[in-house]
Amino acid sequence: MKQVHEVHFITELFGKYDGSSLQSYLEAGGFKPLQQLLAGGSEKILKEIDESGLQGRGGAAYPTGRKLRQFLSEKAPRKFVVCNADEGEPGTFKDRELLRRNIYQVIEGMIITAVCTQAGEGIIYVREEYTNIHDHIEQAIESCYQHNYLGKNILGSGFSFELRLFSGAGSYVCGEGFAMCESMEGKSGRPRTKPPYVKQAGFLNLPTLVINTETLSAIVSIIRHGAHEFRKYGTAESPGTKLISVSGKVERPGVYEIPFGLTINEIVNGLAGGMKNGKKGNFVQIGGASGGILPARLWDTKYTYEDFSRAGMSVGSGAIVVADTETKLLDYLKVVQDFFNHESCGKCTPCREGNRQLRIIFDKIAAGTATAEDFYRMEIVLDVMGSTSLCGSGKTEVVPFNTAIKYFPEEFAVFAEFEKRAVI
Fold first, then answer.
1. How many Cα atoms within 13 Å fall on the side-chain side of residue 329?
2. What is the pLDDT of residues 49-92, one digit of tens each?
3. What is the rounded distance in angstroms from the CA atom of residue 54 to the CA atom of residue 157?
4. Strands 292-295 and 281-286, how do they pair?
5. Which strand (E) or helix (H) includes residue 365?
6. What's the topology of domain 22-230?
7. For 410, which DSSP code?
8. Span 329-420: which CATH code?
9. pTM greater than the 0.90 cutoff
10. C-alpha to C-alpha distances, 376 to 90, 166, 302, 331, 406, nearest whole angstrom
């Protein structure tokens, strides 16, 4: 296998300056992209983001340039930009590194986004479990206020932007836009019915742009170096780089920035140092707890939006959880299902009751009492959840189970007559 190296486009300043010092960030070239925006106008910057092909890095993969232009068209006395740093998905910790090691770039990305969309207020929504970096973020915000990168009349531009930190309550569902808005309003974090959409009536029923931490950081790097430099990485359909969180049974778990187009095999056995203790790989889960299960025989699949789509999965949150042959798939799926059962907000029947039914079935699998009827019932539950759940959480919770059934039919031999019906 060829030697594989991570790249440093978004993470170029990691380790090159004191992440807690605004002065160090300025000396490393920080806030020059913002000054470029203030001097040249928003349209030039929006065009650069369009040309980069940047897609949202929070999981939905929506074109960022289009998202910003749509939010710009929303007119209201108050508009909010919200950095989604909830990152509540197991196996996902890339945004934590951006907040910890380059918080000023995240803040600069928020200011640039606010200027381009004419939003006057911003919130960094951080999961409660990241309490240890809350003070670090607050200090960075205060430093930006002291040096007029935040507040009234930023750098004499006439543009004002107020920013604050909000700590979530530890709910996985609050990563969804409307649930996040409900949480910030002091309510239980539950999604709302659409339409209207978050961009139209989100926080306080005002236009709200919820955007991922990595996306904000990428915007700054793209402006700093140009869309053409970003597109030197990746593929035609998946341009640029991606931060991934690799964990599980590998020698070197951690956060890596990769160009789209590497194979899973290159990531696991190259960047991550191979399987821990020389064990044989069994499967990976791609994109977080609601991501697809990919068997080791398909680890030559390329890490791109298009290749994952053909395999029935998605990039998702950027997580890659690696399992060896000592990890039993059904045991792993039961842990995943326990997580969803615990984290379902309970607002809609398909997700609430569907998870309850799945838990009953997986308890029977663990006890060795599952039957063909249980498998048929599981198929129905997964179909209903995926088709009718209120928010993206319930809709995507079915992915790990559906892909496991597709790629590991032999694991479901606990169900009588299942092998006759399995998709190979």
1. 25
2. 999 999 999 888 899 999 999 999 999 999 999 999 999 889 99
3. 27
4. antiparallel
5. helix 349-367
6. Rossmann fold (3.40.50)
7. G
8. 1.20.1440.230
9. yes
10. 28, 44, 33, 20, 15
Instruction: Give 236's DSSP letter.
Output: S
Backbone torsion region of residue 250, taken as left when φ is above 0, otherwise alpha when ψ lies between -120 and 50, otherwise beta:
beta
Which ranges of 129-286 does DSSP label H, i.e. alpha helix? 134-146, 177-184, 198-201, 213-225, 227-230, 264-266
Please check whether residue 123 is in contact with residue 83, taking contact to mean a CB–CB distance below 8 angstroms. yes
Distance CA 58, CA 313 (A): 15
CATH 3.10.20.600 in the chain is located at 241-324
Choose among 115, 110, 106, 103: nearest CA to 81.
110
- Residue whose structure tokens are 């380790």: 15
Q: What gap in Å lies between CA 313 and CA 77, rounded to an integer? A: 40
Tokens of 259: 């160009």
CATH number for the domain running over 241-324: 3.10.20.600
* Cα 318 from Cα 267, distance rounded (Å): 12
User: Going edge to edge, which strands form the sheet with 292-295?
Assistant: 254-259, 241-248, 319-324, 281-286, 292-295
**Which pLDDT score, from 0 to 100, does residue 416 have?**
54
